[in-house]
Amino acid sequence: MKLKEYYHSVTLRRDKCRGCTNCIKRCPTEAIRVRDGKARIIAERCIDCGECIRVCPYHAKVAVTDPLSSIERFRYRIALPAPTLYGQFKNVSDINVILAGLKNLGFDYVYEVARGADYVTAFVKQALKDPNRKRPIISSSCPAIVRLIQVRFPELIDNIVDVDSPMEITAQLARNEFCEKYGVKPEEVGVFFITPCAAKMTSIRNPVGRKESSVDGAISIQEIYGQLYNQISKLKREDVAQMASPFGVGWANSGGESLALGIDSYLAVDGIQNVIRVLEEIEDDKLTDLEYFEGLACPGGCVGGPLTVENGFVAKNRIRKLSEKAKGRPVSEDELHEVGQKISWRLDEKILPKPVMKLDDDIVEAMKKMETIKEIYESLPGLDCGSCGSPSCRTLAEDIVRGYASEMDCVFKLREKVKQLALEMIELSEKIPGGRKEKERQE
Questions:
Q1: How far is 370 from 359, CA to CA, in rounded Å?
Q2: How many other CB atoms are there within 10 angstroms of residue 70's CB atom?
Q3: Do the beta carbons of residue 102 and residue 133 sit within 8 Å?
Q4: CB atoms < 10 A from the CB of 437, how many?
Q5: How many other CB atoms are found less than 10 A from the CB of residue 134?
Q6: In 14-133, which ranges are E strands?
């Protein structure tokens, strides 16, 4: 799979954009601007959290994922359902029904990401035993949060645990198991994640912390929901064995990962703005007694993902009930050792900062531009109203220095300029022949 330098699942439909500026105020990395009545997403800043999808009243922000038909590219197809999928269906009391429904949609094999989460839990427990790791250890499971740290909190990169996400670990487990069981070649098998969010699609195309993803595509829950619902309603029996433990299923909800670890000193936070506030405190060394931090970009956890169908609170309650009935058990030491030898479960590349604030390659020029930004910012009203098309007065000052905007984009600056021009016109009109002052002089 050929990777693009900047691939983003979150995209803009310019024809639907009304330039309302709702998105620019909610973007956690200030990646959106509104210019000439249309929004623009700055690729280098975007972390694909989907917050703009959530707040856009005109549905101008969308997440590009793979259609269900894309599985036909492969001779054999494996579905990796996120545990969030289980909470989308009313009156389903057995996870096996959903797993069997996926097979009826054209998949040859189904492997629960919730089971992969059980393995991730066991690997992270090992990491927690290492006294030399920077504390608090930060979960690597939410790709939007990992990218947020790259962009806004690069000093915390070393705190991110080097254990891969449940999606990636599950993909390897599923492919290996299927190929061994049926004697097929790995390249004949397509592995597809059923995703509740756009960030997972991006992490497949442009992985962070690994050279290449083990997943071949991501199909949104919204894409698959209708057809899967119809299959579930027709099922008379279920021939798929549910494997994940109650803890693995519980990963769909905020706090599920930390609860599975069985530790006391943890903090689970959901919602991108809430996560930012906690990361700021971690960066300022205000949470030194914290052992583990689980940050999830979506409200409520993955159940609140922008590509889900059901109300997040309803889905969360269903997940809780279904997790109580999950038949799997936690991973044993022997299983963990055996699996650890077969798959690549650690991040194999160093996570690097993304210097989106870089103003110039020349440090002297960069310093001059920083000083200019400061001067322009001090001349602006400081209201951060967003009317200029930039999220704040600080970002407008930066945009001006970068050449993307002008001071007249600020409505207050424009009003002052118009007022000044009006006064100048009045003074000019009084000086020309026939003007009031000219008549007074003649009299």
A1: 8
A2: 16
A3: no
A4: 12
A5: 12
A6: 32-35, 38-41, 61-63, 76-81, 109-110
CA distance 150 to 29: 11
Q: At what angle do helices 333-342 and 113-128 cross, to 10 degrees?
A: 100
Give the separation between CA 443 and CA 437, rounded to whole angstroms: 10
Q: Residue 51: helix, strand or coil by DSSP?
A: helix
Confidence of residue 3 (pLDDT cuts 50, 70, 90): very low
Higher pLDDT, 34 or 239: 34
Would you call 381 helix, strand, or coil by DSSP? coil
Q: Looking at residue 238, what is its pLDDT?
A: 61
Compute φ and ψ for 233, nearest 5 degrees: -70, -20
Query: Which secondary-structure segment (H or E) carries 295?
Result: strand 292-296
Tokens of 342: 């077969």
Return all residues near 85 (Cβ < 8 A) that are at least 6 apart. Answer: 98, 194, 196, 221
Secondary structure class of 62 (helix, strand, coil): strand
* Residue 163 DSSP code: B
For 257-290, write each residue's pLDDT tens digit.
999 999 999 999 999 999 999 999 999 999 989 9
- Roughly how many angstroms between the first and final C-alpha of the chain, as a whole number? 87
- Across residues 72-92, what is the average pLDDT? 96
User: According to the model, what pLDDT value does residue 430 have?
Assistant: 74
Structure tokens at 94: 């057995």
Categorize the per-residue pLDDT at 1 as very low, low, confident or very high, splitting at 50, 70 and 90. very low
Of 6 and 421, the one with more pLDDT: 421
Measured CA to CA in angstroms, residue 284 lies from 94, 278, 279, 289 at distances of 45, 10, 8, 13
- Which residues 6+ apart lie within 8 Å of 88 measured at CB? 221, 225, 308, 309, 310, 315
SS3 346: strand
Tokens representing 336?
Answer: 């963990």
Q: What is the pTM of this model?
A: 0.88
CA distance 26 to 386: 11
Half-sphere exposure of 15 (CA within 13 A, CB side): 0
Q: How far apart are CA 221 and CA 63, in angstroms?
A: 12
Domains of the chain by range and CATH?
10-63 (3.30.70.20), 68-342 (no CATH), 363-431 (1.10.15.40)
**366 contact partners, CB below 8 Å, separation of at least 6:** 358, 359, 360
- Per-residue pLDDT of 217-227, as tens digits, reads 999 999 999 99
pLDDT of residue 359: 80
* One-letter-per-residue 3-state SS of 114-156: HHHHHHHHHHHHHHHCCCCCCCCEECCCCHHHHHHHHHHCHHH
Distance CA 373, CA 394 (A): 8
